[in-house]
Design goal:
This protein has 135 residues and is α/β, with parallel strands linked by helices. It has 2 domains: 2-34; 49-133, 2-Layer Sandwich (Nucleotidyltransferase, domain 5), CATH 3.30.420. 39% of the residues lie in helices and 19% in strands. It contains 4 helices and 7 strands. A 5-stranded mixed beta sheet has the order 4-3-2-5-6, with helices on one face. The chain has a two-stranded parallel sheet with strand order 1-7. Helix 3 crosses helix 4. It is elongated. The mean pLDDT is 77.
């Protein structure tokens, strides 16, 4: 009889972790689905300084113009005429996102304006050009 009591005590003290694992996996799936991933333009840009710089949230399209006036989107070199098609493709992934243009300080402003026009022609109205805060 003493043995049967011990067996009963050890059976009652077991913890069932299956519901805990279910909740953890559901939370993991939720965070993966709702996450917005950071996209890199594919080139390092030396941004000009500005006194009025603000943080930008919910960025889904990141365009970079380097010092040699080369346009980069998602680590791929894109021509000025190809910007609209690339932006439309990225816009399908996240329709609520905005676009950010990182233009190098040595880049010609003509390319910045052309890229801005192509992004707006693709249907993105929330477009900003980024700079660093002037200290």
């Amino acid at each position: 009889m003493a043995r049967s009591r011990r067996v009963a005590k050890t059976d009652d003290s077991d913890v069932n972790v299956t519901p805990l694992l279910d909740i953890v996996f559901i939370m993991l799936i939720f965070f993966i689905v709702t996450a917005t991933f950071i996209k890199e333009p594919g080139v390092d840009v030396t941004r000009p300084e500005a006194q009025t710089a603000e943080d930008q949230r919910l960025v889904s399209i990141l365009v970079a113009i380097d010092s040699e006036n080369t346009i980069w989107i998602n680590r791929e070199e894109v021509s000025v005429d190809g910007v609209r098609a690339a932006v439309e493709r990225l816009r399908r992934e996240n329709p609520r996102g905005s676009a950010v243009i990182q233009a190098d300080g040595a880049a010609h402003s003509e390319y910045l304006v052309d890229v801005l026009e192509q992004i707006r022609a693709a249907g993105v109205q929330d477009v900003v050009a980024v700079s660093t805060v002037k200290s």
